[in-house]
Fold each of these.
Amino acid sequence: MEEIKINFDQKNGNADIYGQSMIFHCNHYNRTLQQVIEDADYLDLEKILVKSAAEVSYEQLTQAFKENTNLTFNQKLEFASNVFKFCGFGIIDFSEFNESGGKVIGKSSHYGLASKLNFGQRKNPAEYFDRGFILGAISAARGSLSGTLFSDDINITQEKSISLGQDYSEFNININNDSFAKKLEKRVDVPSRKFNTNVDEDLIVSTLAGMPLIGDEEGLIPAFGVYLTRMYADYYNKISYRFEKAITKVMGTYEIATELLVEAGHICGFNTFGGIMKSDEWKALILPMLENKEDWVHGIVAVVNAFGWGIWRVEELIPNEKLVIRAYSDYESVGYLRWFGNADHHISYLLTGGCAGLMNLIYYADITKGVDLSKESYYELFKDKNCFIGKQTKCLAMGDDYSEVVVTRA
């Protein structure tokens, strides 16, 4: 079987696998973003969550099969299963499925496990992404054989669910395609770093980019104190902005969706950045470079620049008061331009929430001395009137050359 290829462009901070930008995010952001969308149960969740996963996996695997033309139908599905495992999504088994239909077994699931961290008892399966990926994989395998594209003649139902406490997930498929928007990307040259620090960002980025962060025997990626996925950037973009547009249609304003999506960014910043800064990897590679809290800021920014999110640059840093981050080719703006065109408002929600989380961890909670990354600690920190908040001031998707977030005390 062909080895899965990663093309990491350190200049622009993008990681590409068969034409799809792939970015690292952890179980906390994945579950929170999905929960935000699920809570609006009056929306078409299938269209937002399942369709988005199907589209991005279909595009990626179609490209992969163009580069591997000798694969049989079953070998294509095996390849898709390897991609799923490689990226930390879990294990899916297509052995009981053929071109006429059948069942697919999810032996492990990142989303199934992550959803168990949410409050309350689930009533419905949480494996929306898994279902979408399976649909995209089957459509790509069929399309490359028959010449047809992804279409609505494939029906998938879920009978068992890891997220509901069962040992595995079971998907039954009966054997149909959306046209894909023309890609539009705006890029500018990334400026050199403005600050001289003790942090060797180039060493950090090259080291992290070379780490074998791939799915283990269970198809999961435990690293930096969390469970990572190498997720499709456009999956996040599609579900976030389809959610925003659906909320806007119902409520008459996008501001409610903005607040919810930035809050998901806060949770990501707290748990992902916090987990990284408490991890063995941080202690071994980055901590020896750090002499003050400002170095901690530059250290975590260096890590971000190895995650495929684009390139972050610290434009201004006033200790314990203010942080200005400029993000070049941030994946949210690039995806918005590609699929929805020019934005009429700021849309870099993960960037906004993540930057606030960074400042709250370092200067407010003081993670340099250790922080309890519990739910209780999160709410105590982010609901305090003295916490840091982020405000986006420039946006690539609105025509600026970069996206910018200013973080100050609330």
Note: The CA atoms of residues 45 and 293 lie 42 Å apart.
Amino acid sequence: MKKILFILATLIVLSLTMTTAACNESEQATAPNFALLISDEANAITDFDHLYINISSIGMHLSDGTGNESGEWLEFTPDITQVDLRPLLDDNAMTIWSGNITEGQYTKVFIYVDDAWGVLTGDNESDTVEVDIPSNKLQISRPFTVNNSSTTAFVYDITVISTGNEHSGIDYQLSPQIAKSGADQPYIEVETED
């Protein structure tokens, strides 16, 4: 009887060990290998209480290894399509998409923006100003590598600049900041608001 109980106990321990190992392998297999975060360089953002951008899609260029444009292009819709840039100053960043993409070296990241508008400091929420996005897209050429052994977190830094003067009125425009963007940038993740 003791021998049977010992065998049963051994089988239970082995079963639990195998189940735990299978769960760990499953978690590793489904872990995202890429995350795209949005951040904001200060510049004219302090003129705003809120500055919203509506993102329609993200485009990324996978190099073919020779440095030319013949590599694969990926395009996908972000998980979060509307972002308020105001809370994303300095190292603050928000993840707008994470998932698994093709391994390799990427050379460019595009963010396609439908529109952008803001509420200036001291104005009512109903008083909004439009923010210009040249060609309705932002582009950064900054090489980075994605592999399945870890998550590559690419911080895409956007800034708003004032383009007007006191005679023509103040106009604003979005611009990507390559020096503050990339897979090597420090960041503090900011949770999304419901």
Note: The longest helix spans residues 2-30.
Amino acid sequence: MFAACFCLQSGDKMIEKKSRILYIKRFLEEQTDEDHPATIADILAYLSGIGIAAHSRTVMLDIEQLMEIGIDVVCNKRRQNQYFIGDGHFELPELKLLVDAAQASKFLTHKRSRALIDRLLSLTSVYQADSLKTGLHLEKHIKSKNEAAYISAAMLHKAINENRRVRFMYIEYTPEMKKEYKHGQRVYELSPWTFVWDDDKYYVIGYSKHHEKCVKFRVDRIAAPKLTDLPAIPAPDDFDLAAFVKATFQMYDGPLLDMTLKCKNELMKSIVDRFGEGVKVNIADTGHFYANVKVSASKTFYGWVFGMDGAIEIVKPAEAVKAYRDMLKRAKSI
């Protein structure tokens, strides 16, 4: 009988110790940082407030155990030791970037943005969380009203992880700004490979059975997605995602051509922004330089050139020069 009671009491103490350590860990994570350390007296007061009795020595031993298992508890050795959680999963500037991205994202609804920001703020102390809340104005940002887009993204993510195909319809807009299914409710079958953000839009990339090639779809325009049991067609070993993104997203679909552009000197920043720091350039004259680029010759590209208000001239190839002039003639005839 005595042995049974002893085991029960020992078990109770073990449970109490584990509970105490967990609460100390929570307190340090939520209530401390480098600018707001806590003393042993602060921790004892917190434990007492939630009904857990402890002594200074036991709390110090608990903190040592947290350190032993890898929790980054930093101790300032002053007249009385002060403790705080050091570098967590994210540094404060990193969390700030993520919070700002969640706030600005047009893909996320207001509800999803708030939920994501709350989760991000829970990763740091209450003091740093308060500083991160400064400047948050979700209502001032243009946000998606399509809650289904988030659900579609989750399904596509599952399809990628489980190597399965998905089927869906695709939304487009009529001249009256009404949504309708593209090509009379055509059902697309996609083997999704990955996701890409571009210009604050979220795309899924994969092999389309209908197109018989790698294509992109905007996630927020995918409708009625269904996960199939068909195995996905894998990406080829030589598939270059960076090259696909550069050709497809930067200038959109069109024949890939080697072009020479004559640009005014003040456009160097725009050329670097568009084509990267590896773009090949050489001086044309005192006011211009040549940029030699490989680009998808599409209407979007020609529209970008036109938007430079004569500061860019397409020099070659001849087919690109002709295509641009033809587009300008069609624009004048409307």
Note: Confidence is low (pLDDT under 50) at residues 1-11.
Amino acid sequence: MLFRKTFAALLVIGALTGAHAATPGHEVIPLYDGPGGATCDYFNVGGRVKWHHKRGDWKDINGVVQGPAPFASAIIESIDKSRVIEWDLTALARRWLKTPEANQGVALTAVPGRAGGSVYFHSREADDPQLRPRLVLEYGDNSRQTVAPEADVHLDCSTVQPLGKDKLLLAGRDTITAMRFVLNASAGDDLRRATLQLTTNAKQYGNVIIGVYELDPPAKELPGEPQLGIAKDYLLDRGITKDPDVLMATGFESALWFSDWSYVSPTLTFGTLASDDALGFKPLDGKALRVKIPHGGNVGLDLGYDFKGKTGSEPEEIYFRYYLRFADDFVSYVDGGKLPGVSGTYGRAGWGGRKWDGRAGWSMRGGFARTPEQGNPLHDYVTISSYAYHAGADDFWGDEWVWDLGLRGLLRRNRWYCVEQYFRVNSVGANDGEIKGWIDGELALHRTGVRVRDIPDIRIERVWMNVYHGGTSPAASDMHLYIDNVVIARRYIGPMRRD
């Protein structure tokens, strides 16, 4: 046993440090039961990562998504008596030991079509350690190992709050319990039996058959082949302004870079630089624009490219690309905020609590989410979105559309990303507007059926380079990010060519 303990390793969903999920080309995110962890709607609410299916994702013993056939099941009669319930997970545990990246945890729920009650189990937070969940491993040499779960949570749609710190776990017809374990990598092929043991609470609601399924959480897709565009013909964007479809491009190299824009709101929060070692900065290509959201403030950057003033007319569709790098200190536990995007507010409506108005204005700025707490596997990432003031909004504020295709909108701090947006306003009288977003040339957001205008005079007024903390809440500390190689064009731009 000493040998096994010495070589113990995480065989479950390794954190986003390079461990691959069961599907090639993916990185898995560990199940997390902290304050920003799993809920009915979200696999990780802190990182804005949604389940594919409300109330959790799993696969059955036949590999069927949300399938009915469990790996193991147990009949639990409603006798209002606390007792230990067991499931034989030997086959599943052996597969995890053979293929560590396949171990993503388990889901417990009522077997479809069978007794439909529900039951409470004691969680890993139970006061009495003897009542806590455990996976008992028995080996060929007659040794035993008892493994406690690293995370356990029940997903109850009657609340939006994470329930991972509850002392009881509910499983039944309308609720699942999810948990993950750390197994011993050195066990090899001598595992004789693996038994999941949970202790019921005395209170139970009807007879129930609880099945164990394999948890199948969302995974972040690894970089693939990027979609190339205008930029592929211009090494490091040199000369890209000569392209007939490019309206503006800047790499912030010139001392007069601000003349490329229609306005630059005067603040002391931004400037160009080529080095910034204290914040872990590495240049993309020469100088970049450094933006600071100051402690106690909200505004980091406010500048814009107004199409009518620059080109004589306003487009109905546009592509806008920039490179983005969040500094190590870009952390906010207080609130999220705004990033660059496009807009047609006309100073009248569609931003700052001024409700969208199809005859007055709209906006599609970017957004960033509040930083997940320490301990959350997504703490080192910034989740980006589009912050949309549009016809479908329910109130005076915009809607958050997370860039969640392939979870590509999870951006690690102090890494350059190519961020591109496309927006097309709707035809007057129709809900046929469209927005797309790409990260490093791969699609991260796509929404159709968007409506932002009811009259033809409402178009795309500007590219709005806005960096803002909140809401109204000021930043609790200085926060920095970097922007470089901005291009505005009539067709897709794509990542910068580097060789």
Note: The chain has two domains: 2-220, 223-489.
